[in-house]
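Sequence only, no structure available. Ideas?
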Amino acid sequence: MSGPKAMNQEEASYLELLEQRIALFDLLSASLLAARQAMVAVDIDGLESRITQQQEIYADIQKLDGEIERLQYQCAAHLRMHGGVEPLSHTAELEEVLHRLHQAQARVKELNAAHQAMVKRSSRTVTALLNSLNTFEGLYRKGAAAQLNLPKQFSEEV
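Reply:
I predicted one. C-alpha cells follow.
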C-alpha cells in the first residue's frame, strides 16, 4: 500500500518544484523588464541592481534544477522497483503546469533576446558618442574651461 502513496508524494513534490521554477522565471521576466526601464532611463545603479538580481535568480533556478533532477531519478528508481510504468494520478495537473512552465520559459527567452538587442544597440551608441567626443575634445574642453572661468593653460591642454 505504500507504493501508490509514495508515488503521490513524489508527484506532489515534483509539481511543487515546477511551480517554484515557474515563479522564478516570472521573477526573471520582471527583472528583465525593470532592467530595460533602467537602461532607457540611464539609471546605472538600477541596471546594476537588476543584473545582480538576475544572477541570484539564475543561481536559484540552477539549485532548483538539481532538486528536480534528483526527484526524477527517485521516480525512475521507484518505477523500476515496481516493474514498469504506473499511471500518474495528477496527469492533467502536470500537463497544465508543464504548459505554464513552457510559457514562462518562452517569455524569458523573448525578453532576453530583446534585452540583448538593446544592449548591443546601446553599446554602438556609446561607442559613437565616445568617438564623437574624442573628435571634438579640444572644443568641448575650451568651452567648459571658459564657462567655469578656469585658467587659460587648462583650456589649452589637449
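Confidence is low (pLDDT under 50) at residues 1-7.
Hope that gets you unstuck.
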